[in-house]
Structure formats: structure tokens, C-alpha cells
């Protein structure tokens, strides 16, 4: 190749470059525009694919036909919780929850922790999902599988969850569970249509948690745990209507919280839980704080499933 | 004079290109072994894929294990390449030239292997498309997806650009010696490189912009990796220095990885003439500097939280420094930082062997650091329950072995495909040195081309028309 020819070809190259530079700029502009709108695409997809949903229609969710939006809340009166020592059974809230949700072992969506008091002795703290209004799990979920409904209930869409367990790392209350293997399921769960509000049939490799039983609330029932508590320690109600009940009595929620030194678990973390506690150690039902220990939880429905694979937490 | 010059380049090309055409028995043995380990790892993963994560030691409380540790570890190693080669390029450190190719390649391989780890960790790998269909930018996971894919793309470009002249060299020099498909590969991959002045100028512009662009991307990657942890409400991870701490740790372990891989490749391909002991000692200095930075970060991290002992800090400190994880913690702090630091501090131990041993200590120490952060951090109880244990199963050990074997395997294959030393850059350096010897102090070079020659120190830029692409 002599130098003249080389010069010629490099000139041609240069012309090509000029054209392609313009095209490159066009391409970069298009790419930039795409990159700018890309973050919004998932929400657009979600809106298109979801269509008109019950979640976004308040009149459909509160069951009364009015436009009032419920704000479900729970108050647990620890003065009345003796960890079911009095009836010498495992905690009945956990047991009813396990039966109602077909929760596989070792999941206890509401778990009764025995917490040491100052001095000696213990108190029992039934712990459901706190339904945080600044929920760390919702914040970190990469695919929006954990989401808050307009009523403030935090649910998990197990059909979308990718199983990264970021939400479990983020939850400061240890209230999230993972289906490490294929969870045992009863026939009635396998045949029902999946819904995040009852979380079955439950697939493998996803997170599960307490869902606050909004489906029961809508039909005028208390959650399984509140229904089953033998000393009616669990109140469930609506912050919007300012009312709550444990099945035996009805209280004005704001006054009930204000007059009984109510508190929230780890309120300093700023998660804004919708579950409140009234301090106590079961004194209202005659429990001595020095009597420690409770019966271990059971998963009775699971005994009917042959070869059910379980694990420990 | 010219004859000596040509001889030197001739020998460089011969030595560096020899592995591309001649393969010994040892190489096949090593590759065969690595393939077996990778296959074993794949079998372990197939077990996990069939039975679910139940086959691992992870459970609800210690919910991440080896996979996430390896993710952080490999992404850390990947910083080797880019930061070392980009930073050394930017500051025009002359000794870097034979090192950069390997460093850049380690980046690409470590990123690919590390990027696989979170996918292996997923409970539902079949739902990965959800990250695109329903991705939320509010989630740290998406930040990781974005930054790691950007970094991987950038690193591949950054590896490829300085490779083009060498691929052209392979195309021109390895005639019938190379197999047909290899010749085809060189022809296509060298995209018509002729070593013309214009091509060189474009290449140096592209490399100059890439080496500046890649540094913030690299820093962002390990920052957001640390935010996977720091964005949660856990006492052990509640730290604002985590981003910087992870970036420093990444570069630190990256340097150690380069030292070890460079030593292996030098031994295997007889590159002693180009990768001298001085290169290892220079990298050792960098590593030694980073031991100090790492120690400083540890002091910042643990003294600030330890002084206040807020919340669960006392539990975390006890398990780290006195109880369950104390052996790991002290192996990391003493073995991973103090010992390598001392090895490099004393001239008597600051030798090739010493630096290599120090690098081994650093790599093990930094793996343990990630273990402590992930497992011990998750072990801190959130509610009144007994702290749980994490005991990795054979599946996790096998997948870890498979990941390391994959890392080695890709490097081994790569070393047979392209020169592991940047021939044209070394040759250019020779030229510069020669130009310095022969040229008058204010030589009549054309200043117009000088600003574009990032490689050439001012006044010593090679004359136009001088080719470095191996054209005779």
C-alpha cells in the first residue's frame, strides 16, 4: 500500500466517521431518552398488567360501600397475655393462625416471645407482623413483591417474589419466613386460587409473613389470632373509624391507646408500626412474672400430610 | 542500534506469543482438573435447583451465607483490575505496563463469577426477568444490578481496547502456527487494525476516556454492594463508613489477587524477563499502603460503635472479639492486615516470596472479613430468641470450589487466546526509552500530536509513522 492510497482510504474512513458520528449522536440521544424513562417502565407495565384492581378501589375494599378507607390496626394487651400458661396449652393465637393459614413448620406468623423483665421474671409478647407504615421490607424489595395496600396492610405476592431475602434482612422484627423447600400444603390449599391475602398455595423459594387477615376483617370477623385468644388480649380495629374490639368489648382506639401507656416495638427505628402494645406480664389473668416458660408451638394440620419436609428457623 | 532494538522486540513477541501456539501437558492437567471441579460445582447447583435452598445451611435467621460472601469477595477482587490499571494509567506509572492486561482480565472474570453468585442465592432463579419487568429503583438490589452490569460492560470495553493492537499482532504474526478458528478470531477481533496514525489516535482517545470513566463506576459498584447491608435496620451493619470500607477492602483484596495470579502466570509462561520481582514489590507497596487504610477503617468502624455500646453492639462485639467468631475476627485483623503489613514493612521480607505470602494472607483475611460481616452480622438476634448457627453444607462448599475453579479456568483459557502481556504497550515503552537515549533534549518532534498521546511523556512521543503494532 503506497502512502497516497493510504491517505485516500483514510479520508474515506474519515467521511464514514463523520456520517456515523451523526448517527452515533442520534443513537446516543435515543439511548439517553430510553435510559431516562426506563425507571418508570416497570410501573407502567404493572399498571397495564394489573388493570382495574380491588386494591385501588376503596369502595370495594372496606366492604361497606362507602368511600371510607380502613386503616387496620392491632392492640395487644400484655396485661392479659400469660402465654397460655393458664390453660396449659401452646399459645392459642399462634395455633389458630397456623391452622387458618396452613402455615408450615417452623412458621409462626404471630410468635409469642418470652422477654425478660428488669429484675427477674418474664413477660410474653405475641408478635405478628408490625404492618409498618414506613416498612423496611417494602422499601428494599427489588420487584415490588412486598407491597402495602391502601389500607396499610403489608402483603407479599408470592407469585412475583424472586427469593432474594433482602426483605428478611431488612425486617427488624424477625417477622419474615422463607420456604426453604417445597412447603407441605393441604389439599384445600392446593385447590384454592392464589391470593396474597391468604398466601396459599405456597410455592418454594419465596418469603411468607403475617398478612393481618384483611379478608376476615372485610367480612366482619377478627383475625384468627384475636378470635382464638382465650383471655381476649388482642384487639383489632380501624384507626380511621377509631374503633377496635377483642370480640368481648369495643373500645375507642385513640383513647384506649392514650390511657394505657401504649407503645410500639422498636419505635425508635422509625418504622411506624400499626401494632401497639399495652405493657404488662399477664397480671390481669393472674400470671406471676416469675413463672417462666410456655408450651412449644404445634402445627397440627401438618400431621395429616405425609412426608412433610420441615426445617428449623 | 536498530538491530538491538529489533532483537529486543522480537524476543518480547516470541516469549509472549509462545503460549498461544504451544501448550504443554501441565496446562491440560490443570485445565482438566479445573473442569472437573466446575462440573462438580454444577452438580451441586443442580441438587440445589431440584430441592431448593433447603440443601444449604442458610435459614430464616442467618439468611445469607457463602453465596453472598463470595459475591462480595469476587466483586472485591474485580476492583483489582480496573482500579490498578486505570489509576496507574492515569498517574502514568511506567512500571504498570506488563501488569495491566492481567489486572483488567481479572476484573472481567471476577465480575462475571461474582455476578453469578446472587443468582445462585435466589430462591426463584426462574423469576429473574421480574427484575426487569417489575424492577424498583428504590431497592438496593436494583442499584447493584445496574452498577454491576455497567461495570462489566465498561470493563469488557476497557479490556478490549488495549487488546486490539495485540490481536492484530497475533493475526499478522501467528500464521499457520495458530489453528484456523483462532486465526479467524484474531482477524475479526482486531477489527482491521493496521497501526496507522489515525487508528492509534482514536485508540488513545478511547482508552483515555475509558480509564477516567471506569474509576467512578468501580467505586460506585462496591459502594452499592455495601449498601445491600448498610440499608437494613441491623445494628451490626448500621454504618455510614460501609461504602468506603468496602471500596478500600475491594481494592486491597484485588491487589492480592493480582499478585497471586501474576505469579502463577509468570511461572507458567516464563515471563520473568517482563514481570520482574520489582513489579511484585511495587504491587506489595500498594498492598502495604492499603493495610494501613484498612486498619484505619476498622478502627473507625469498631471504635465509634464500641465506645457507645448502643443496642445490640455488645452482643456483636462479644461474638466477634471473644466468643464464637473470635478466631475468624483475629485471623482477619492480625493475619489479614497486621502480618502482611509487617511483611511489606521490613526490607528483609519485602521480596517476591514475601509479597506472595502476604497476598495469600490478605486474600484469606478478606474472605474472612466478608464472612464476619455477613454471617456474624445476621446472627445478632433481633428478638428474644436463641442466636442461631450457620453451618455451610457440602452444596455450598462445592459451589464455592466450583466458583474458584471457574475463575481459574476462564483465566487459563484466556491466556491461550490472547497475549497476557500488552505487547504493544511494552514495545512503545522501549521506543520511548530509546527515543530518550537518541533524541536531542529539544527534538524537532511535531507538537501537534503530543496532547493526544496520553502514553507518551511530553517530548518523548514516538515520531509519527512509527508503528507499534508489530509491523516490520
Give a topology summary.
The complex is a heterodimer of chains A (313) and B (472).
Chain A: H1 3-37, H2 41-50, H3 58-61, E1 72-77, H4 92-101, E2 111-116, E3 122-127, H5 136-140, E4 146-148, E5 154-156, H6 166-170, E6 177-178, H7 187-190, E7 207-208, H8 214-218, H9 224-228, E8 234-238, E9 243-245, E10 250-252, H10 253-259, E11 275-278
Parallel strand pairs in A: 1-11
Antiparallel strand pairs in A: 1-8, 2-3, 4-5, 6-7, 8-9, 9-10
Chain B: H1 2-21, H2 25-51, H3 66-90, H4 97-121, H5 130-133, H6 140-160, H7 164-173, H8 180-189, H9 197-230, H10 242-269, H11 277-308, H12 313-321, H13 326-345, H14 352-379, H15 394-415, H16 423-438
Task: Write a structural description.
The complex is a heterodimer of chains A (313) and B (472). Chain A is an alpha+beta fold. Chain A has one domain (71-292): Alpha-Beta Plaits (2-Layer Sandwich), CATH 3.30.70.20. Chain A contains 10 helices and 11 strands. Chain A is globular, with a radius of gyration of 27 Å. Chain A starts with a helix and ends in a 35-residue tail after the last strand. The model of chain A is unreliable at 51-62 (pLDDT under 50). With 472 residues, chain B is mainly alpha-helical. Chain B has one domain (22-125, 137-427): Formate dehydrogenase/DMSO reductase domain (Formate dehydrogenase/DMSO reductase fold, Up-down Bundle), CATH 1.20.1630.10. Helix content of chain B is 70%, strand content 0%. Chain B is built from 16 helices and no strands. Chain B has helices spanning 2-21, 25-51, 66-90, 97-121, 130-133, 140-160, 164-173, 180-189, 197-230, 242-269, 277-308, 313-321, 326-345, 352-379, 394-415, 423-438. Chain B starts with a helix and ends in a 34-residue tail after the last helix. Mean pLDDT of chain B is 88; it is low at 443-472. Chains A and B meet through helix 1, helix 2, strand 2, helix 5 and helix 6 of A and helix 5, helix 6 and helix 9 of B.
Amino acid at each position: 500500500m503506497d502512502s497516497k492510497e493510504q491517505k485516500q482510504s483514510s479520508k474515506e474512513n474519515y467521511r464514514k466517521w463523520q456520517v456515523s458520528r451523526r448517527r452515533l449522536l442520534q443513537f446516543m440521544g435515543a439511548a439517553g431518552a430510553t435510559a431516562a424513562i426506563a425507571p418508570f417502565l416497570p410501573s407502567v407495565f404493572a399498571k397495564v398488567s394489573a388493570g382495574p384492581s380491588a386494591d385501588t378501589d376503596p369502595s370495594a375494599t372496606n366492604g361497606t360501600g362507602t368511600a371510607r378507607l380502613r386503616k387496620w390496626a392491632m392492640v395487644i394487651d400484655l396485661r392479659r397475655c400469660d402465654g397460655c400458661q393458664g390453660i396449659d396449652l401452646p399459645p392459642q393465637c399462634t395455633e389458630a393462625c397456623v391452622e387458618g393459614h396452613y402455615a408450615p413448620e417452623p412458621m409462626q406468623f404471630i410468635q409469642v416471645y418470652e422477654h425478660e423483665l428488669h429484675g427477674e421474671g418474664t413477660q410474653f409478647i405475641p408478635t405478628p407482623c408490625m404492618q409498618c407504615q414506613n416498612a423496611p421490607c417494602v422499601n428494599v424489595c427489588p420487584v415490588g413483591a412486598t407491597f402495602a395496600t391502601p389500607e396499610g396492610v403489608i402483603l407479599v405476592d408470592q407469585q412475583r417474589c424472586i427469593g432474594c431475602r433482602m426483605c428478611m434482612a431488612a425486617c427488624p422484627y424477625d417477622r419474615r419466613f422463607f420456604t426453604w423447600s417445597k412447603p407441605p400444603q393441604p389439599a384445600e390449599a392446593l385447590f384454592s386460587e392464589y391470593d396474597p391475602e391468604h398466601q396459599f398455595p405456597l410455592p418454594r423459594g419465596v418469603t411468607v409473613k403475617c398478612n393481618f387477615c384483611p379478608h376476615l376483617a372485610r367480612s366482619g370477623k377478627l383475625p384468627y389470632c384475636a378470635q382464638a385468644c382465650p383471655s381476649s388480649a388482642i384487639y383489632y380495629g380501624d384507626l380511621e373509624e377509631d374503633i377496635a374490639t377483642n370480640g368481648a368489648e369495643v373500645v375507642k382506639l385513640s383513647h384506649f391507646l392514650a390511657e394505657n401507656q401504649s407503645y410500639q416495638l422498636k419505635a425508635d427505628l422509625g418504622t411506624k408500626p400499626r401494632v401497639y402494645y399495652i405493657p404488662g406480664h399477664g397480671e390481669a389473668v393472674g400470671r406471676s412474672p416469675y413463672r417462666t416458660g410456655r408450651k412449644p408451638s404445634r402445627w397440627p394440620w401438618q400431621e395429616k400430610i405425609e412426608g412433610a419436609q420441615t426445617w428449623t428457623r | 542500534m536498530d538491530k538491538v532494538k529489533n532483537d529486543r522486540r522480537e524476543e518480547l513477541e516470541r516469549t509472549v506469543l509462545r503460549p498461544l501456539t504451544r501448550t504443554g501437558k501441565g496446562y491440560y492437567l490443570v485445565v482438566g482438573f479445573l473442569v472437573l471441579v466446575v462440573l462438580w460445582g454444577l452438580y451441586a447447583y443442580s441438587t440445589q435447583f431440584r430441592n431448593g435452598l433447603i440443601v444449604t445451611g442458610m435459614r430464616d435467621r442467618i439468611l445469607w451465607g457463602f453465596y453472598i460472601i463470595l459475591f462480595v469477595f469476587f466483586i472485591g477482587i474485580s476492583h483489582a483490575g480496573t482500579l490498578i490499571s486505570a489509576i496507574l494509567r492515569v498517574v502514568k506509572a511506567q512500571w504498570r505496563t506488563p501488569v495491566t492486561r492481567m489486572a483488567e482480565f481479572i476484573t472481567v472474570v471476577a465480575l462475571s463469577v461474582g455476578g453469578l453468585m446472587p443468582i445462585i442465592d435466589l430462591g426463584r432463579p426462574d423469576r429473574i426477568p421480574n427484575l426487569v419487568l417489575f424492577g424498583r429503583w428504590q431497592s438496593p438490589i436494583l442499584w447493584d444490578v445496574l452498577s454491576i452490569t455497567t461495570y462489566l460492560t465498561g470493563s469488557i470495553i476497557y479490556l478490549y481496547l488495549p487488546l486490539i493492537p495485540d490481536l492484530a499482532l497475533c493475526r499478522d504474526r501467528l500464521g499457520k502456527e495458530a489453528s484456523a478458528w483462532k486465526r479467524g478470531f484474531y482477524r475479526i477481533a482486531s477489527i482491521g487494525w493496521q497501526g496507522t496514525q489515525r487508528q492509534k489516535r482514536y485508540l488513545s482517545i478511547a482508552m483515555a476516556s475509558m480509564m477516567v470513566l471506569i474509576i467512578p463506576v468501580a467505586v460506585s459498584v462496591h459502594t452499592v454492594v455495601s449498601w445491600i447491608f448498610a440499608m437494613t435496620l441491623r445494628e451490626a451493619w448500621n454504618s455510614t463508613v460501609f461504602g468506603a470500607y468496602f471500596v478500600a477492602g475491594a481494592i486491597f483484596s484485588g491487589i492480592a489477587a493480582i499478585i497471586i495470579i501474576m505469579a502463577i502466570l509468570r511461572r507458567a509462561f516464563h515471563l520473568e524477563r517482563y514481570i520482574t520481582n520489582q513489579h511484585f514489590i511495587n504491587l506489595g507497596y500498594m498492598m502495604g499502603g492499603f493495610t494501613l487504610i484498612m486498619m484505619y477503617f476498622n478502627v473507625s468502624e469498631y471504635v465509634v460503635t464500641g465506645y457507645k455500646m448502643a443496642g445490640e453492639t455488645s452482643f456483636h462485639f462479644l461474638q466477634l472479639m471473644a466468643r464464637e467468631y473470635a478466631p475468624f475476627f483475629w485471623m482477619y485483623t492480625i493475619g489479614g492486615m497486621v502480618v502482611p503489613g509487617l511483611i511489606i514493612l521490613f526490607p528483609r521480607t519485602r521480596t517476591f516470596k514475601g509479597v506472595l505470602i502476604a497476598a495469600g494472607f490478605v486474600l484469606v483475611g478478606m474472605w474472612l472479613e466478608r464472612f464476619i460481616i455477613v454471617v456474624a452480622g445476621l446472627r445478632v438476634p433481633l428478638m428474644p430468641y436463641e442466636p442461631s448457627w450457620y453451618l455451610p453444607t457440602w452444596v455450598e462448599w462445592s459451589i464455592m470450589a466450583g466458583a474458584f475453579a471457574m475463575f481459574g479456568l476462564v483465566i487459563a483459557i484466556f491466556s491461550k487466546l490472547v497475549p497476557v502481556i500488552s505487547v504493544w504497550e511494552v514495545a512503545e515503552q522501549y521506543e520511548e526509552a530509546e527515543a530518550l537515549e537518541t533524541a536531542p533534549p529539544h527534538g524537532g518532534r511535531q507538537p501537534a500530536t503530543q496532547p493526544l498521546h496520553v502514553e507518551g511523556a511530553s517530548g518523548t512521543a514516538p515520531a509519527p509513522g512509527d508503528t507499534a503494532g508489530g509491523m516490520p
